[in-house]
Amino acid sequence: MLYPHERSLVEEMKNRPFALIGVNSDDLDRAQAAVRKNEINWRSFQNKPQGRETSISDDWLLYTWPTIVVLDADFKVRYRGSDCDDATAVARQLVSELDGKPVVVESQ
Amino acid sequence: MKAKSITTFLLTLVFTQLATAQVEESPGQKYQNLIAQVEVANQAWKARLAELREKERNGGPAVPVDAFQSPLIPFVAQFNTAAKNYAGTPDAIPFLTWLAQNALPMVGDQRKAAKDAVRTLVTTHRKSLRLEQLEWMIGRLDYFYDEKEALEVGLLLEQESPSAKVRAYATFSRVGATINKAPVDSDEFRTAKSEILKVLEGVEIKDLASSVKTRIKMRENFSLGMSPPDIVGIDLDEVEFALSDYKGKVLFIDFWGDW
């Protein structure tokens, strides 16, 4: 599970030009329960909420789960894949380019 | 004594003729006989596996690993021998096709026999309609040859196969890597796309067509540097918002589930 990593990423990026958004594949009850249980502190959509004709993952042509997509400030794809470390590195670099603060390097 | 000798002679004659008939089994009969034996072995294997699984469900020992072993393995050598006996003639084609379709997931000599069978089919028998049964194998000739050879063999199939399906798979084998890797704004990509879509228009291969079209759509619409469609709706707290509201920030979007 990526929750601890994502929670710390949200914390690390507080007050910086960054947002973490989830797209959840479960039904609404299960998704809401998961948010509470795992103390998820970022906004999430349902992948296919009631009334929506197509799922977000279909619209985005994503066929594997979990997948992470990183968009830059111009809404362009800069990372697409399932490696959380690679996605985080790309996001940190982009945020650093935006606000001029140095890239955070995690201690090993 | 004389009558006994005649009987012995006649019996010998009958057995000799039966033996001769056995030797002279036609290629078609040989193939049908082997297929019938395969079917019997397959049914026996399935029945045994079902029985072992039932015992396991009822608290018996776990199904042993060897019970999952394909019952087709012992037949590979027989199909291979028959293919060799009829080598270079159309009679070899059914045996080679069986090897290609059945022995490729195996290992060692069986897998080698399957790969050799595919190579023989797409070269020696490239004008046979039976090659249609190879499907993805023709679409991935790089799996059986090095890059240069795959291109040469594929081009011959595109030029000489009487089957539109085989030609389409061969075209895919040639342009597939370009569709998958070349920059979408390059002439190389545009040419490959136009070629494969044109070929697929004239032939009914649903799986290949949908896979190629999805791949092209994905590459053209969602490659690095492109903008995905906006997400608009309500979040899990039932608050309305649009992903594009976050423009100006770096977005880390996690497609997740509570699995």
Question: Would you mind describing this structure in some detail?
Answer:
The complex is a heterodimer of chains A (108) and B (259). With 108 residues, chain A is α+β, with helices and mostly antiparallel strands. Chain A has a single domain (3-99), classed as Glutaredoxin, CATH 3.40.30. Chain A has 4 helices and 4 strands, in the order αβαβαββα. Chain A has a two-stranded parallel ribbon with strand order 1-2. A two-stranded antiparallel ribbon of chain A has the order 3-4. Chain A is globular. The two termini of chain A are 20 Å apart. Chain B has 259 residues and is mainly alpha-helical. Chain B has 2 domains: 24-125; 134-223, no CATH class. Helices cover 61% and strands 5% of the residues of chain B. Chain B has helices at 2-23, 27-57, 73-85, 93-102, 108-123, 136-139, 147-160, 164-181, 187-201, 206-221, and strands at residues 232-234, 240-242, 250-256. In chain B, strands 1-2 form a two-stranded antiparallel sheet. In chain B, α3 (73-85) packs antiparallel against α4, α4 (93-102) crosses α5 (108-123) and α8 runs parallel beside α10 (206-221). The radius of gyration of chain B is 28 Å and the shape is flat. The termini of chain B are far apart. Chains A and B meet through β1, α2, β2, α3 and β3 of A and α10 and β3 of B.
Structural class of chain A: alpha+beta
Quaternary organisation of the protein chains:
heterodimer
- Extract low-pLDDT stretches of chain A: none
Radius of gyration of chain A: 15 Å
Task: Supply the number of structural domains of chain A.
Answer: 1
What form of chain B results from the Cα inertia axes? flat
> What percentage of residues of chain A falls in helices of 4 or more residues?
25-40%
Distance between the termini of chain A: 20 Å
Shape call of chain A: globular
Share of helix of chain B, binned: 55-70%
Q: What percentage of amino acids of chain A are in beta strands? A: 15-25%
Q: Biggest β-sheet of chain A, characterized?
A: 2 strands, parallel
CATH structural architecture of chain A: 3-Layer(aba) Sandwich
Distance between the termini of chain B: 87 Å
CATH topology name of chain A? Glutaredoxin
Number of helix segments of chain B?
10
Return the average pLDDT of chain A rounded to an integer: 85
| Tally of distinct domains of chain B | 2
Largest interface summary: A-B, 57 and 34 residues
Number of strands of chain B: 3
SS element count, helices of chain A: 4
